[in-house]
Amino acid sequence: MSSSSPSADPEKRPSSEESSEKHSHEGTYHEYDSPEDRKLLKKVDLRLLPILTLLYLLSFLDRSNVGNAKIDGLTTDLHVSPPAYNTALALYFIAYVTFEVPANIVLKRFDPQFWLPLLTFAWGVASIAQGLVTNQAGLFGVRILLGATEAGLFPGVVFIFSVYYLRRERHWRVAVFFGGAALAGAFGGILAYAIGKMDGVGGKRGWQWIFILEGLLTVFVSLVGFFIVPTWPQKAKWLTDSERSRLLARLDADCDAAEKEKFAWIYVRQAFSDPLVWGYALLFHGFAFVLYTLSLFLPTIITGLGFATWKAQLMTVPPNVLAAVGIAFGAWLAAQTGRRAPLIIGSAVVGIIGYIVLLTTTTAGAQYVGIHFATLGVYTGNALLLSWPSENISGQTKRAIGVAMQITIGDMGAVAGVLIYRPAFSAHRFRKPHIIAIGYLVFAIAVASALWYRMASENRRRAAIIAAGKDEEVDRDTKLLLGDRDVHWRYRV
User: Fold this and answer.
1) pLDDT tens, residue by residue, 440-479
2) DSSP codes joined into one string, 225-242
3) What does the DSSP 8-state code read for residue 260?
4) How many whole angstroms separate alpha carbon 123 and alpha carbon 384?
5) What's the pTM?
6) Quick one: CA dihedral 313, 314, 316, 317, positive or negative?
7) How far apart are CA 398 and CA 272, in angstroms?
8) Per-residue pLDDT tens for 75-121?
């Protein structure tokens, strides 16, 4: 990504608006911005961010490398028709959305230090298996397995961030973590180009080696992960007693993350009955359509501009590098302004500009510029919106379910995307799918605007109640049960 270090937290000085959006039982943010806190944050960052970002990079690489394998001969060798190829992509996401909420329920009840590396090992094996399939049925089966095993990583990691960081600190970490997707796109093109030269080695095609070698890398990292993926903060042995106490104290002042909340179905019902949770999910739905169609079809789109396979693999790198830079800048700007919604809307507008360029130009150079704009806007918007639920949902189980719901319902947009970017719609360089992509981004703008209005209005209503002295003191158990419905809770918009 960029050279900016997440440890050098750009949110050390929260804006005045952010400072006013505190719940009643927290101290001032400045109280938890001492040299001691910054040293603790750096230690937590160094333990969480490298390994978890690497896991997501591998996850995104193992799900999207099928696009690189396709232009390297996968569909020809397996006799997979163009519609069947799109079906294989859709089956991955159907399995992915099916298992996300159950995976986060398992995570909440067990230990992430075991659960996340186990999932990583499983999808690494599935990735290797993609390089060993010999027919269409085998490809379908392995894509389902890959989707099921990758489902728990992203919502699980976002939830883990919510029990280590203050609300204002989370979006920067989620952005760094999501940057693994952009880096996967960049490295994926380079790796596919290099590995593709192994065509014929061991009697296997180059596309097979793409799956096998990248899958082996994932399996290796998963074994290391059993020793370094973090557990819950209350049990973290890599923290000293004083560090653990300080971490839990700052969490306790900010939200419910320091509590040892027992699983109860009432919190699951709270998540499913909260309109804002559905709003976060629908917002990602709009962005997921364009995110995954870009990541999966980018090599095909670039090849369609008239470039050879080897050159198309390498030409996927610059747009993804630009996306990584955009993610870092977007996260920094969100930290400086204390805003999420307007930046998400702005990112969608940049993406729309990219698609308009793709629709209105005919030369390869101009089309390639459009790809850069689209990738920049789409990846930056996703990085910003994916941290919103973890910042605004209070109650550990409700937050775990809410985060998983966002990814689950959002990724249904990916299912639609891979079915719409089908051969029947590929005429005129995917003109119809690109128009539909603009429609999804417009939908995302509408949802982000509605969330912005709803949360800002609720913040004002609650502030008025407190100013009038009409708020009532409740005991700690009641406060935890109320969660973000507590009149003292402030949404971060």
Assistant:
1) 999 999 999 999 999 999 999 999 998 888 887 777 777 7
2) HHHHS---GGG-TTS-HH
3) -
4) 26
5) 0.81
6) positive
7) 9
8) 999 999 999 999 999 999 999 989 988 998 888 788 999 999 999 99
